[in-house]
């Protein structure tokens, strides 16, 4: 056990050991306290106007100019047939996130699996070769990234259907209808944005589009009036419209 501990805190493995420990602490805090640690969110620009030959699934429409939190799209199922109908191309980073399930599942869920596999591969490689305390060990540190990504994709894929059926907070569509919030960016046509609303003082973000494609300026107070069938996407209109 002491030898395993020494390997874990060696110069090669220490960064991943610390990161893995922080992730364990994150899940303990969120599980035991229910605290939503929003500072783990990251923003990506998702442009699903593409023609890409990748093993991805997309079940909604995004606008190329819309910034969407990874957490906001954590329940978005990406289908290839919807992707290739669009015009334009995804950049490499966007395809990377989609392909390895960082979009399509809660980001921290997928990221935790990735770090676990990366840490395990690096630990095993440096332990077998006794390279955890020398420069050769960094071959396993950096070389473990690619296999860890593919293991993450394989092991997280079965969870996609599960998370598709739930919102970030598990709220039902009925609970969201009539809720009000302030729109953060101007939308019109098929453009999608995010709207922050509160349920029992708990702020949540949902994906929204305007009713009948009307233009709704940023900073407009809006209300949710409907839900797009079979999607975690809601229809909004200006309050008292």
Low-pLDDT residue spans = 38-88
* Residue share in helix: 25-40%
State the secondary-structure class: alpha+beta
Based on CA atoms alone, the radius of gyration comes out at 21 Å
Number of strand elements: 9
- What is the helix/strand order? HHEEEEHHHHHHHEEEEE
By DSSP (H or I, 4+ residues per run), the number of helices equals 9
Number of domains: 3
Order of adjacent strands in the largest pleated sheet: 5-8-9-7-6
How far the N terminus sits from the C terminus, by CA atoms, comes to 66 Å
Query: Averaging pLDDT over every residue, what do you get?
Result: 76
The largest sheet is: 5 strands, mixed
In one word, what is the shape? elongated
Strand content: 15-25%
Explain what the structure shows.
A 5-stranded mixed beta sheet has the order 5-8-9-7-6. The protein is of the alpha+beta class. It starts with a helix and ends with a strand. 32% of the residues are buried. Helix 2 (14-33) packs antiparallel against helix 5 (107-129), helix 5 runs antiparallel to helix 6 (137-143) and helix 5 packs across helix 7. The radius of gyration is 21 Å and the shape is elongated. It has 9 helices and 9 strands. The protein has helices at 2-8, 14-33, 80-83, 92-99, 107-129, 137-143, 145-156, 160-164, 173-176; strands at 43-45, 57-58, 67-69, 78-79, 180-182, 193-199, 202-210, 221-227, 233-238. A hairpin with a 2-residue loop joins strand 6 (193-199) and strand 7. It has 3 domains: 2-36 and 107-162, no CATH class; 41-95, no CATH class; 173-238, Beta Barrel (OB fold (Dihydrolipoamide Acetyltransferase, E2P)).
